[in-house]
Amino acid sequence: MLINEPVQRRIIVLGRILRNSFTPQLKTASVRQNVKLYSSEYHVTIGDVTKEVRPAKKPQYVPMKYLAIEPSQECLQHLRWMLQKDLLGQDMFLIGRPGPLRRQLAMQYLEMTGRELEYVALSRDTTEADLKQRREIQNGTATYFDQCAVRAAVEGRILVLEGIEKAERNVLPILNNLLENREMHLEDGRFLIPASRYDKLLKEHTKEELERWHLVRVNESFRVIALGIPVPKYLGNPLDPPLRSRFQARDISGHTFKATL
């Protein structure tokens, strides 16, 4: 029986597939170099990234008992990435499935580097006053009190925003200018400006003049760590593109079975 050429070609390919399906295949595993953590009184080193550690002005603001004695390699990879972004002066966005892993990772980084914390759990009820300044009446006079975002910017702390997908759209743009330009207008008449511009003005004017102009210096150590979940896979409000571009994002997946052991 004669078999035309296309049918013969299909039979040859089918035979090759059947032969390969019964031959054992070697499993290739990606080999990742182990990352080690070295910590001293003045420096923290993860792999090839080193950061100088300064003593905290208020140690009670530094998280404690979050960092494990021997962190897993997966955790060290995340901490190394955060250490790099901190050295570059970039704000971070940790995104992952619902759970405490992202918050624990942020607290571990703050404990490892000795950084002071300002924490905000965002919700639909969060308003502009909860982030900037809150007005209270004392002795018949309206007084403004700085809130977490302002305190973190002035004191050089790390602002952790958890549940960023729960906030309303008219709340987060308040932080947009603070994230991009390190500037913010306050309700009491003061104006936050970046450290580089403040230091430049300080060379031309006195500190009393800058205080009279109500200019406040934003500390160069100020950072923001946002914690969120992917939307629309989960319920929430997606971030606006201008605000999303201010962060360096990293996917924080759940622990693997090997890391859990």
UniProtKB/TrEMBL annotation:
Residues 91-247 form the ATPase dynein-related AAA domain. Signal peptide: none annotated. GO terms for molecular function: ATP binding; ATP hydrolysis activity. Pfam families: AAA_5 (PF07728). InterPro entries: ATPase_dyneun-rel_AAA, P-loop_NTPase, VWA8. It comes from the Eukaryota. One of its GO terms (cellular component) is cytoplasm. This is ATPase dynein-related AAA domain-containing protein. It comes from Diploptera punctata. The lineage of its organism: Eukaryota, Metazoa, Ecdysozoa, Arthropoda, Hexapoda.
